[in-house]
Design a protein that fits this description.
globular, 193 residues, Dihydrofolate Reductase, subunit A, alpha/beta
């Protein structure tokens, strides 16, 4: 099975969005360079960010997100982000009315069930968990193999935490990778077992 990675862009003080779920400048690094990151023509990053991010994105088979993120993005209009094959949504509610049952989205109750479903769908590819409450729950449950952070030079002061309301200590190994891009520092850590 592929590894499970907790990932997001994050402020220096540990937030992935402000109190109104707005990322503010956290994604500015995605338009701060001259190397296209995807086919949209909109995302352009520095060469180091491209090499790091594109390699990672190409390995992702499934993304796990909470229902809150799903609702905020309007379910990505039924198309998984970044050309990921499937999205597993952690929720206690059914899919929205008029949801296309053919869309590659799977609605699952609980983090453990979500990771199991995602690993089955992903095979040997990466299962990415969006940071925040669901990501923190997965880390607390011992389901995360790696933490990736795109640290942006901004202090938000308050908002949605990278690890959600995590209440316990979890040790990470020394950084496996540190890449400096324009307006971002890409960090990768293995979770200590």
């Amino acid at each position: 099975m592929g590894k499970v990675v907790l990932y997001s862009s994050v402020s220096v003080d540990g937030f992935i969005a402000d109190e109104n779920d707005q990322p503010g400048p956290l994604f500015d690094w995605l338009t701060s360079g001259d190397v296209p990151l995807d086919d949209s023509g909109f995302l352009k990053v520095s060469q180091p960010s491209h090499d790091y991010t594109r390699t990672y994105w190409n390995q992702i088979g499934v993304t796990i997100a909470g229902r809150h993120v799903f609702d905020l993005t309007d379910g990505w209009d039924g198309k998984p982000p970044s050309n990921v094959d499937h999205v597993v949504v952690v929720t206690h509610r059914p899919p929205p009315d008029n949801w296309n049952p053919e869309a590659p989205f799977h609605f699952v109750n609980g983090v453990e069930a979500a990771v199991a479903k995602a690993q089955t769908l992903a095979g040997d590819r990466i299962v990415e968990i969006a940071a925040g409450n669901v990501g923190g729950q997965a880390l607390a449950a011992g389901l995360v193999d790696e933490v990736r952070m795109d640290v942006v030079p901004v202090v938000l002061g308050a908002g949605k935490r990278f690890f959600g309301p995590l209440q316990s200590q979890h040790l990470l190994e020394d950084s496996a990778e540190v890449i400096h891009g324009n307006r971002v520092l890409h960090l990768r850590y293995q979770v200590r077992r």
